[in-house]
Structures are given as structure tokens and as C-alpha cells.
């Protein structure tokens, strides 16, 4: 006789994980928006040293890491929330704010985790289509807000399109919202934005109790395998999300590695510049192949295949050892999302794609 399962579980979609792990041999892993670069050597040394202490539980409050983040961004420690990846913070926010009858508003296509938030809580997801140029339609999102809305999410830059909403537009959007609606600005890729606006929205998180800004060490810091994210939020938000999470959710090695990574700003800057150079090169090559792309400000391209067979191209690239993401798995059929790797990996991708296009 089968187990009796909570009815809401059946509504939760399966996260569309990349197929990278199913292939062997030398791969160009361009499917998961990871950094192609290993952590700074000092971070690797800190990880090794911390390994000798894993017989002890980690600091449940992440004191050292929160202190460093607070100092770096001129925030109070009480406004720093840590998570087992920024996904854990999103899931916890849903647990404390959503329920049957409540609504969550977000753009679509966007980060594949967002549909989970409504499904796991019995709330209603209101998905607002992106504009024709793959951007958030903030006026339409505002019009979708009503008395049942508890959360609005703005993914900026947006995953999977890479498009960016200017912070002035977000600030106007926040001012027009009821103060009891939580606005989560997901900035997982903010370090890759070219303009010097990366931290311009942070004062809004300080001044508005309903604003949460999430970030991660998974991308530019090269710590995807350790799963550590953080958020800037009100002390009240931190208090309520901490209640619903398991204790010790951010492991010791993740805390140590992230804290050490913050000591190496120059390394991060070099990674960003290197990624931006590869972004310009890949985008230029794609356009040379006659493939339009969204105006990306992230570490990946969103490629319009122009009616070509999406799965055939994904499979063809895989046969050449190049792993990318199909748009249909991310909310829009007929596209590819391709992360930037090393220059050699990017050349391999462009060469394989050009061969498939004939």
C-alpha cells in the first residue's frame, strides 16, 4: 500500500537540474551558471584547515561570516541572513508568508525555483510574462498585486534571460506597493552587471522592512559546491525565517570558505572582468551565427534559436561534450541558456554550435 502523501506535494514541480552529471569524458560544463574558476588558493587552504574540525557542529548563527558581510556592506549584523544557498532563504520566506488563499507574483520565465514556493505552501502563483525584449514588466507586475499578494520577486539580473532592471525602476515599484507585501530582489548575478550600480539598492533594504535582497557565493566566488547564500533584510524577516529552518543549515566549511573569500576582492574583480570579456566575445560570435540574444548582464546568454529544433541542438552539443540548458526546461521553448566557461570552452561551444547550424 503506498504511503499517504500531503496533497500539496504532487503540485511541486521537479527542479530542472542540468544533465551534466549524466555524461562522461571531458566536458564543457556550460549549463548551470557556475564559475569555471576554482576558488582563490587561500579559500582552498581555509577549506582544508576547517576539515579538521568537522567533528563539531557549525556556528548556528554564522557569526564570523555575518560580521564580515555587515562590515563589507555597511549593514547591521541583524540585517544579514545566511542560508544553505539563497534558495533556502526563498523557501523559508515562502513557508512563513504563503498559505492557501495567498498569492506570490513573479515574472516568467525566471528562476526555476519560484514555482516551488507557491506549490509547497498551497498559495497561488501569478506569473507575469516578460516583455518582448525579455525584461521584467514592472507595471504589469504591479497591476497583478492585490489584497491577497504576500510576496513579489524580482530576479535581477533575470535568470534565464540575463536582463537587468535599473534600480530606480525597482525603487519606484517598491514605493507603489503596499508596505505589507514583501519584495524579494534576487541578485544572484549582480556582480556581473557592467555599470557601477551593484549596491545601489541596498539602502532601500535598510529603509523598508518589506524589502529583501538575496545574493550568493555560488557564482562569482566559485563556491557553488558548498551552498552558501545570504540576504539583506529587516531583523524581523531574519527572525521569522530562522524559526522555520533546521538548525546548523549552513555548514562549517561553507561558512569558513565564504568568510575567507571576502578577503580577496581583487580576485573577484579579476573574475568579473574575465567573465565580461568572455560575454562580449560569445555574444559577438552568436550574433555572427545569426542568433539573436537577450541583453544579458549576467554570466550567461539567452539565445533565440529562431524556430530551430531546440532538443536536436542540445543533443548535438552534448555529443560534442558541450552541456547547455534547453529553454523548454526554463520556461520558454526555442531557446538555449549557455553559461560562460573558460575561453577554450567557449570556443568549443561556438565551434560545435556553428557545425550544427551548418
Question: How helix-rich are the residues, as a percent range?
Answer: 25-40%
| Radius of gyration of CA atoms, rounded to a whole number | 20 Å
Q: Going across the major beta sheet, what is the strand order?
A: 2-8-7-6-5-3-4
Supply the CATH class of the largest domain: Alpha Beta
Number of domains: 2
Assembly level? single chain
Looking at the structure, the CATH topology of the largest domain is Aspartate Aminotransferase, domain 2
Instruction: Tell me the strand percentage band.
Output: 15-25%
Largest sheet: 7 strands, mixed
Salient structural properties:
7-stranded mixed beta sheet, Aspartate Aminotransferase, domain 1, alpha/beta, Aspartate Aminotransferase, domain 2, single chain, 358 residues
Description of the structure:
37% of the residues lie in helices and 15% in strands. It folds into two domains: 7-39 and 265-357, Alpha-Beta Complex (Aspartate Aminotransferase, domain 1); 41-261, Aspartate Aminotransferase, domain 2. The chain is an alpha/beta fold and 358 residues long. The strands form three sheets. It has a seven-stranded mixed β-sheet with strand order 2-8-7-6-5-3-4, sandwiched between helices. It is built from twelve helices and twelve strands. The protein has helices at 41-50, 63-73, 86-97, 114-121, 138-144, 167-176, 202-207, 235-244, 252-261, 265-288, 310-319, 343-357; strands at residues 28-29, 80-83, 103-108, 124-129, 149-155, 182-186, 211-216, 229-232, 300-304, 322-323, 325-326, 335-339. Helix 1 runs antiparallel to helix 9 and helix 3 packs across helix 8. The radius of gyration is 20 Å and the shape is globular.
Amino acid at each position: 500500500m503506498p504511503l499517504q502523501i500531503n496533497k500539496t506535494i504532487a503540485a511541486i514541480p521537479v527542479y530542472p537540474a542540468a544533465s551534466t552529471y549524466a555524461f562522461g569524458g571531458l566536458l564543457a560544463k556550460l549549463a548551470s551558471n557556475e564559475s569555471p574558476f576554482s576558488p582563490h588558493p587561500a579559500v582552498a587552504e581555509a577549506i582544508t584547515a576547517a576539515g579538521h574540525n568537522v567533528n563539531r557542529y557549525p556556528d548556528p548563527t554564522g557569526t564570523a561570516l555575518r560580521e564580515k558581510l555587515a562590515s563589507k556592506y555597511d549593514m547591521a549584523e541583524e540585517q544579514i541572513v545566511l542560508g544553505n544557498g539563497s534558495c533556502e532563504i526563498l523557501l523559508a520566506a515562502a513557508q512563513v508568508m504563503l498559505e492557501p488563499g495567498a498569492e506570490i507574483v513573479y515574472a516568467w520565465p525566471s528562476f526555476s525555483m519560484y514555482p516551488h514556493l507557491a506549490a509547497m505552501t498551497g498559495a497561488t502563483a501569478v506569473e507575469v510574462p516578460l516583455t518582448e525584449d525579455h525584461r521584467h514588466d514592472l507595471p504589469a507586475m504591479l497591476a497583478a498585486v492585490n489584497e491577497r499578494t504576500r510576496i513579489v520577486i524580482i530576479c535581477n539580473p533575470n535568470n534565464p534571460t540575463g536582463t537587468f532592471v535599473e534600480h530606480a525602476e525597482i525603487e519606484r515599484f517598491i514605493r507603489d506597493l503596499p508596505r505589507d507585501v514583501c519584495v524579494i530582489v534576487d541578485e544572484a548575478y549582480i556582480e556581473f552587471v557592467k555599470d557601477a550600480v551593484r549596491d545601489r539598492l541596498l539602502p532601500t533594504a535598510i529603509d523598508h522592512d518589506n524589502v529583501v535582497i538575496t545574493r550568493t557565493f555560488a557564482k562569482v566566488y566559485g563556491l557553488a559546491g558548498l551552498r552558501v547564500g545570504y540576504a539583506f533584510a529587516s531583523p524581523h524577516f531574519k527572525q521569522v525565517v530562522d524559526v522555520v529552518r533546521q538548525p546548523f543549515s549552513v555548514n562549517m566549511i561553507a561558512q569558513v570558505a565564504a568568510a575567507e573569500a571576502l578577503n580577496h576582492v581583487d580576485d573577484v574583480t579579476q573574475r568579473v572582468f574575465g567573465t565580461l570579456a568572455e560575454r562580449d566575445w560569445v555574444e559577438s560570435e552568436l550574433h555572427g551565427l545569426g542568433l539573436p540574444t537577450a541583453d544579458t548582464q549576467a554570466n550567461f546568454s539567452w539565445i533565440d534559436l529562431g524556430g530551430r529544433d531546440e532538443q536536436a541542438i542540445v543533443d548535438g552539443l552534448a555529443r560534442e561534450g558541450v552541456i547547455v540548458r534547453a529553454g523548454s526546461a526554463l520556461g520558454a521553448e526555442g531557446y538555449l541558456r549557455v553559461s560562460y566557461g573558460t575561453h577554450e570552452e567557449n570556443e568549443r561551444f561556438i565551434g560545435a554550435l556553428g557545425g550544427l547550424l551548418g
